[in-house]
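Worked example

This section walks through a single chain of length 79. The input is the sequence exactly as stored; nothing has been trimmed or padded.
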Amino acid sequence: MRKTLMILAIAAFSAPVWAMHCPADMARIDEQLKSDPPADPAILTRVKALRAEGEKLHKAGDHEASLKALDEAQQLLDS
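Given that input, the structure is written out below as tokens.
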């Protein structure tokens, strides 16, 4: 029972942390798009779509999915 309560407490406190992480990721992507956009138009389009999807998911409260979309966008920018 104690472990279950600990897990629930950790989950409850981690959700706001994820919510705060999304805007930082979006800002990093935006800055990278301004300073060093990908040369490939297809990658640029995909990054912008993933960035928009991440913001939409963040606003809807689905922070885990938002972070996945933003991470994929960041990986495309880093490659």
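What to look for: DSSP finds three helices and no strands in the chain.
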